Amino acid sequence: MRLAQKQIDAYNRDGFIVLEGLFSPAEVEAMRSELARIQQIDTDHLVREKSGGAAKTLYRVHDAASPTASPVFHDAVRSPRLLGPAQDLLQDEALYVYHTKCNLKTAIDGSVWAWHQDYGSWKRDGLPEARPTTALIMLDEPTEMNGCLYFIPGSHKEGSLEPRFDDATGYKFYVVPKDQLLEIMARSPKPVAITGKPGTVVLFDCNILHASGHNLSCHDRWAIYVVYNPVTNACAEVPSPRPEYVRSTNTAPLVKGSDDILASYRQAQEA
Where are the alpha helices (DSSP H) in 91-165? Predict the structure, then answer.
């Protein structure tokens, strides 16, 4: 799958595009089943809401060398329908996966992610430029009630803002300072709620301002994020780097696979 020029133009203008129905109900169900399985694994690749609580974030599900490896995610990140659009947006065929991250916003307990740019954290990993694009795969139907993502359209054009470290939430990371955020919001389009049906994919720039609220509903809201980065933009060495599951050192360019992402999954199920 390749993008039309009008889709590329919309991404460059707004900082994101939405691709509806990119994955089928059967594929979404397989992904959900794998995430349920992986939650039972004892590994530092899994972050919980509280000590011993519900899983909040799972990493590195695409990598066969990971304790959280999954054949369906391994094949999905290499599928033409996902990798092709990323190559179009980044204007580069040689991409690798910087990381995969699965956010599991559990009913009632799913917590806030404050306004931030992803590159605010990633530049501290030694990432030279704000070039990656992220593919959000919806595994449930995100709504404003269950803590969907919000974007400020066009905010990627602000460039890379200097963030502050936020240690007030369960997941510590770099956020945009409040005064600067309010000034940007005052002169920007209103934030957009990113909603859609399971199987929808949203590709977004690593400098777009985004956030999500509590899951106040009685239903979980699961999503996976696949970050594609050009091989030429691989991380430089930094002191005390974050773990491999956050900042991949496997920068070999992805080889495009098949759009049949369930073949290996079915074989694993039958084994």
Answer: 119-122
